[in-house]
Design a protein that fits this description.
The chain is α+β, with helices and mostly antiparallel strands. It has one domain. It is built from four helices and five strands. It has a five-stranded antiparallel beta sheet. The longest helix has 14 residues. The relative contact order is 0.16.
């Protein structure tokens, strides 16, 4: 179902440019952003209707970074109770209607995160250390200057 649905989305967008062309138009200021987000939201809504008992389905976004200055959206599917980055990313937009999937940790071009924190950071900036989830902390050895 997840494999076939992006093709239905692509057929529903007849007369429209493919996602990569639309992405270029967004960066040139010829179109408003949000195209991949729309594809990901449609796939997320379709998968959410399935009511899986052993899987969790979440929206995922890779924030813009210096060497990849655009955001990208997808759907994260993982076993119930497992960490976010242990899941599989379903990306209906990357290959223009052909479903791209990869383990989130191995999908090198992108740093997948839950949608809400990315949108928060985009709108308000990075949360201070006291407002972040303490379970996301990374312990590092201190270095003497």
């Amino acid at each position: 179902m997840a494999y076939v649905y992006p093709r239905k989305l692509a057929r529903g967008l007849t007369g429209s440019d493919p996602p990569l062309v639309l992405s270029d138009k967004v960066h040139l200021g010829l179109k408003l952003p949000g195209f991949c987000l729309e594809w990901a939201e449609a796939l997320y809504m379709r998968l959410s209707r399935e009511a899986f008992r052993t899987l969790e389905v979440d929206m995922a976004m890779s924030p813009a970074r210096l060497w990849r200055p655009f955001e990208h959206s997808g759907v994260m599917v993982r076993a119930s109770g497992r960490p976010f980055r242990s899941g599989l990313v379903l990306d209906p937009c990357r290959d223009e209607g052909l479903l791209h999937w990869a383990p989130a940790a191995d999908d090198r071009p992108f740093r997948w995160q839950p949608l809400e924190p990315v949108l928060w950071e985009k709108k308000f900036g990075r949360k201070p250390w006291c407002a972040r989830d303490p379970l996301e902390a990374v312990l590092q050895r201190g270095q003497v200057p």
